[in-house]
Specification:
The protein is an alpha+beta fold and 211 residues long. It has 4 helices and 12 strands. It has helices at residues 17-25, 39-48, 115-130, 149-159; strands at residues 2-7, 31-35, 51-52, 69-71, 77-82, 93-98, 102-108, 135-141, 163-165, 179-184, 188-195, 204-210. The strands form 2 sheets. A 6-stranded mixed sheet has the order 3-4-2-1-12-11. Strands 5-6-7-8-10-9 form a 6-stranded mixed sheet. Strand 1 (2-7), helix 1 and strand 2 form a beta-alpha-beta unit. Helix 3 packs parallel to helix 4 (149-159). The longest helix is centred in the middle third of the chain and has 16 residues, at 115-130. The protein is globular, with a radius of gyration of 16 Å.
């Protein structure tokens, strides 16, 4: 099964869209989570893909972005949930898609400097994981720097729910890693790759797993 996560940085126009589509299609992904998808891009994507997920906010145009999941698997249920915000101000969401075998969660968490808010967001993600009776895949722009204490904390929290972070040493954002994929313990990871492009300030993180 092939999984990808990509923060598209809300920058797409008609010239960029075909290149984004090519990047999405390159590995024939089973699930791809996108972040910072603005309404115009969403309208383009919905013509060509089965896309699931609502927007952060319909009242603040600057932050009216979605974290959708694209998949051709049969979807039994999907929803978008608000995450705690407090003094970090920018709305944050998690989109959940449930198929026959998996629950896939895609999110975009608060900036790494908001440590207390991030811990509240971790707890909300755990609640979404606990609500599922399927195997869970979690992915997204988690805004967690590599080797940070917050990343170690999330790893420990998710380990209790049999989720492990896919090991990736390549940067996904400039000189750092902010984008991650978590899969069930015992999952065989066949390939992990970062696709570099100038389509965003992030790169697409991809993994191929055996199920």
């Amino acid at each position: 099964m092939k999984i990808g996560t990509f923060n598209v940085h809300n920058t797409y126009d008609d010239k960029c869209y075909p290149r984004l589509e090519e990047l999405i299609d390159r590995k024939d992904l089973d699930f791809i989570g996108l972040q910072e998808v603005n309404p115009d891009l969403y309208k383009r994507l919905v013509y060509n893909y089965n896309i699931y997920g609502e927007f952060r906010s319909f009242f603040i145009n600057k932050y009216n972005e979605a974290c959708p999941i694209i998949t051709d698997h049969n979807v039994n249920f999907y929803n978008t949930y608000q995450l705690p915000v407090l003094y970090s101000f920018i709305p944050r969401i998690a989109t959940v898609v449930e198929t026959n075998c998996y629950t896939v969660i895609n999110t975009h968490l608060a900036l790494y400097k908001y440590h207390f808010v991030k811990k509240l967001q971790f707890k909300r993600l755990i609640e979404l994981i606990e609500a599922s009776d399927k195997k869970v895949i979690l992915m997204g722009d988690l805004n967690l720097r590599k080797n940070s204490e917050d990343l170690k904390l999330l790893d420990a929290m998710l380990s209790k729910y049999n989720l492990v972070r896919v090991k990736n040493k390549e940067n996904t954002f400039k000189n750092d890693i902010l984008d991650y994929i978590y899969v069930p313990k015992g999952t065989k990871v066949n390939e992990v790759k970062v696709y570099r492009s100038n389509l965003s300030d992030h790169y697409l993180l991809y993994c191929d797993i055996s199920v």
